[in-house]
Amino acid sequence: MLEGMLALSALGVYFHALFVSITLGFPLVIMALLYKYDKTGDEDYFRSAKIATSVLAVNFALGAITGTLVEFGLVQAWPGTIIAIATFAFVPLALELVAFALEIAFLVLFIVTLGKIKPIKSFLILAVYWIFAVFSGVLITAVNSWLIAPWGTGIVAKALYPFMPEFGPLSTDVEKLLALKILALATGIPIQAIIQIPEVSAKLGIVLFDPYVAFLSPYALASILHNLFAAFLVGTSIALLAYAIRYHQSKEERHLKTIRVVAPIVLVLFLVQPTIFGHLMGASVVEFNPSKFAMMENALMSYKNPLIAFVAYGDPSKEIVGFDQLKSSCDLHGNAKLGDLANSVGLSKEKVLLIAKEVGVTVDAKKVSAVYDANLRDVCLSDLEKAISKIQVVHVSYYTKIFFGVIGFLASISLFVSLKFKRFSNLFNRFLGDKTLLILSIAIFLGSAIPSALGWFVREVGRKPWTVYGLLYPEELVTIVGYALTPQFLAFMALVILAIALSGIYAMLIVAKREIRFLELLRGEKNE
After folding, report:
1. φ, ψ for residue 509 (rounded to 5)?
2. Cβ contact 258:45 at 8 Å
3. Distances in whole angstroms, Cα of residue 149 to Cα of each of 78, 213, 403, 468, 471
4. Is the pLDDT of residue 226 over 80?
5. How many CB atoms are closer than 10 A to CB 85?
6. Interval 14-70: pLDDT, tens
7. In the predicted model, is pLDDT for residue 519 greater than 60?
8. Annotated domain spans of the chain
9. How far is residue 215's CA from residue 31's CA, in Å, rounded to a whole number?
């Protein structure tokens, strides 16, 4: 039922990502509306800003709830990840708690003062809230990026898989980490069950030399920019679609005014997200995730494609590296054993048995010998085969993502020019009638939301069979509590997540559709 646990985790992450996108995107819309209100004095802009703020307030609560579920699930369902949480992720997650507390403080301050102070002051308060929300996203993305490109582990992954790059300078105690890995393999006990033994922590001590190393990864920088701007785009496109639906239903001019404010923001995001940050992300994947890149391009065999090669490598004459070349690199191991790698860092079989005895882990010496005799070439080839088993779903998802991204890109340009220039508006109306704004807004939403969802899918599935790319498997990190892996428990937790998420989405729809004066209710004022 490991796949079921992975699916459950994905369900929680996807809903949380939706709410995070609104958390990051809606403030851009609200700030733009407040700026227009401050410049024009037009109450329609302020009214739209208040409605968006009501939705943001409900959404923030949902983000906190689903975020708690995700973090609870991370520790409970995947307790083996504590080895990363307590080392590489400790500083980012500690800072994220501070950022989250400040988000709450400034959002509440914004809500209770909106309409009571000058619009520009409200703008500045919301801007501070948004900065902390972005900082929180930076920190969480840095942690996730470490799982995909474990910076600070140096040549450890490359020593196992010759096709891997080096992940920065070595900031970890390789001997201690390898000892844990060997004990897990020899005992069949997941790493999480080993590290929860008090003696293990006392014996292993500090395994990380630089607690800030997760921030130093070039992969993390590209990933942060790409993911954050994708979230901005999804959040603003949701707001745009909501106002387009209201305008289509009511034909009220105030909704059209709001669309005119939001459309340029969406266009700018569409112009920079795929072209600049998408390219940076793609280049990072090529460099740090070679097996994932081969999956994305369906490259069972290496081939030439000048366009893809130019985008990926900056050289149209270069061959797209496929799994045939990745497999060939496994031959570099020759007859080397895992024991050879362990001995090279001073970790003999005798030392592993001594460590096991000292920390209270029962292990058979014959099984330790069997682990030491494991052929590195066979491990390398076996894991590549596991990646190949997912090549079609990753490839199709990746190019579906690209297809919808192009649709959203073209729709955002079309919407902007139709709002800006009368001749284009007449042209679109000739074909689409009075549904022009609605249809284009739907296309923009699909062109941002679907690529974002599929992009995350490609990101996560593309690093399989590992949870930490090239180092740790999901089966080494998952809970040992049997009931947690049963269909009954998985179904129950899925229903809990769905109930919370869907009821929250419905609450946001009610707030937006009926224009409930959420802010006035908070302040104890009467509805207008």
Report:
1. -65, -40
2. yes
3. 19, 12, 27, 8, 10
4. yes
5. 18
6. 888 889 999 999 999 999 999 999 999 999 999 999 999 999 999 998 888 888 888
7. no
8. 2-172+208-289+391-461+463-523
9. 29
